[in-house]
Structures are given as C-alpha cells and as structure tokens.
C-alpha cells in the first residue's frame, strides 16, 4: 500500500512538472511571437520612413535640377578656389611666380568719425545762425562772436596764435581727406577670390549672377592659426606669430633638436599655413628660432 501511494505521489509530481514545463513553453512561444510581431512592426516603420526619405530626396533633386544652370555652365566652386589653385603654392612650383592677386581692400564705413564731424559742424552752424538771427532782430551779439571779430581785426597774420590755428585747421582738413581716400580696416586681410568661372557658376545665371564673393580674415585670427601650425613642429617649445599687412614675424623657442633643422621645418610649416590661408597678397615671412634662457639657481 505504501508503495502504491509513493507511485501515485510520483505520478502527481510528474504531472505537475509536465504542466509547468508546458506552461513555460507556452509563455516562451508567446514572448517570441510578440517579439517577432514587434520586430516586424519596427521593420515596417523603418521601411516607411526610408521610402519617405527617398521620396523627399527625389523631390529635392528634381527641384535643384530644374533650377540648375544649363550644361554649358562651368563646374561648381570647390574648396580649393581660395588659395589652393594656381598661383598660390609655395616651393619651386610655377605657382610661386605670381603668388599675389590684385584685390581691393575692405572699406571702412567710419560711422563714428563721420557722426562726430557732422555733429560738430551742425552745432557750430546752428549757434552762428542763431546769433546772426538775434543780431538781425535787434539783440546784441554774443560775447564770443564780438571777441572773435575783434581778435581777427586787430591781430596780424604773422601772429603765433593765428599761425597755430591755421596750422591746426590745415592738419584736420588733411586728416579728413586721408580718411576719405583710404580704405581703413587695417586689421582685416583680404583673401583670394574664386576664379572667374567659379564666380559665374556661383551666380547661377539668376538675379545674383556676376556677384563677386569677398572674404577676409582678421590678423589676430591668422596669427593664432599660424601659431598652432608652429607648435606642431617637433622641437618647438613656444611660438609667437605677429601678422602684419606686408610681413609675418615668427619667433620660436626650441628646447631640443638642432636650431637649423627646427628653423627649416618651421619655415616650411608656416609657408604651408600661409598658403592655406588663401590671402590675396602673400606677406613676407621672417622666422627666428633660439634656445630658451637658462634659469639661474
């Protein structure tokens, strides 16, 4: 009897285990089915998004093709249009024969000097007109105009105050003429413009056809770029690059390697950096390399 009970208990346990296994398999099958459906849904959504993206790209391409110039137009502008084409290289190539291009400098608007001059002239003219109108209406003239009239009437032309005032007015006039005839913006270096064919392609034959692209770089920014190039040279411990309108002066400290080798590598690196800047007028380069001063202890 005990044996029958034991066998019956084992049978019940096996049935329970079998039921649990069946439930586990059913749960796993359901989970896999759900994952498969979710993956299918994601794949379908990705396919729809891809089709939308392709449709948008085809629409943009068709729009750009309809707005593009005819086939006889020159090729589009390339990044090498500024400074990396012919006439901009360094070394022994033929491009060094004519490295500079005639490009006009940027003109300063000079709003502040023009505004100051306009305000001074307007104030003096308004005060003089007011005094003249007051005198015409029967009132006495202002003291400063009486004093100025007396001084101009009594002082000779060779008087020191008259000569000094005339010289000051002449200097101010010459300064204003110089400001009017010079472009200003000495801290902005003009860059090489694209070629004529590139400019025509950039115009697109529309309302902006023939427009010249003008670019410039600040001298401080150019000095920082060249300084970073100088610091990449092996052996350079510290560097300073001063960029002028006609000359670039580089000073470096070398803590190892031979000074002549460091100077040659630094000269080549800076020439390459100047070429990549694409300046319309290539400044002259002077390089000075020395050892750091020994500290006294």
Automatic annotation (TrEMBL):
It comes from the Bacteria. Keywords: Membrane, Transmembrane, Transmembrane helix. Residues 84-94 have a biased composition (Gly residues). Residues 38-59 have a biased composition (Basic and acidic residues). Residues 171-290 form the DUF6286 domain. This is DUF6286 domain-containing protein. InterPro entries: DUF6286. Residues 1-99 are annotated as: Disordered. The chain crosses the membrane at residues 112-130, 160-182. The keyword Transmembrane helix applies.
């Amino acid at each position: 009897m005990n044996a029958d009970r034991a066998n019956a208990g084992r049978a019940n346990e096996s049935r329970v285990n079998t039921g649990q296994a069946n439930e586990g398999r059913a749960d796993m099958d359901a989970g896999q089915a759900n994952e498969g459906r979710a993956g299918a849904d994601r794949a379908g959504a990705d396919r729809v998004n891809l089709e939308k993206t392709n449709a948008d790209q085809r629409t943009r391409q068709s729009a750009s093709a309809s707005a593009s110039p005819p086939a006889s137009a020159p090729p589009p502008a390339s990044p090498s249009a500024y400074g990396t084409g012919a006439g901009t290289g360094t070394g022994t190539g033929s491009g060094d024969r004519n490295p500079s291009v005639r490009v006009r400098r940027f003109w300063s608007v000079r709003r502040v000097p023009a505004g100051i001059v306009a305000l001074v002239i307007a104030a003096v003219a308004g005060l003089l007109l007011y005094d003249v109108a007051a005198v015409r209406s029967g009132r006495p003239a202002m003291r400063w105009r009486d004093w100025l009239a007396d001084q101009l009437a009594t002082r000779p032309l060779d008087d020191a105050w008259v000569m000094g005032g005339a010289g000051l007015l002449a200097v101010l006039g010459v300064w204003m003429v110089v400001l009017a005839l010079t472009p200003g913006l000495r801290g902005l270096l003009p860059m090489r413009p694209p070629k004529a064919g590139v400019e025509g392609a950039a115009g697109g034959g529309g309302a902006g056809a023939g427009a010249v692209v003008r670019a410039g770089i600040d001298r401080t920014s150019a000095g920082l770029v060249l300084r970073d190039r100088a610091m990449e040279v092996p052996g350079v411990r510290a560097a300073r690059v001063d960029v002028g309108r006609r000359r670039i002066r580089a000073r470096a400290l070398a803590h190892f390697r031979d000074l002549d080798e460091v100077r040659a590598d630094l000269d080549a690196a800076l020439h390459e950096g100047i070429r990549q800047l694409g300046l319309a007028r290539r400044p002259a380069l002077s390089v000075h390399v020395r050892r750091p001063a020994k500290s006294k202890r």
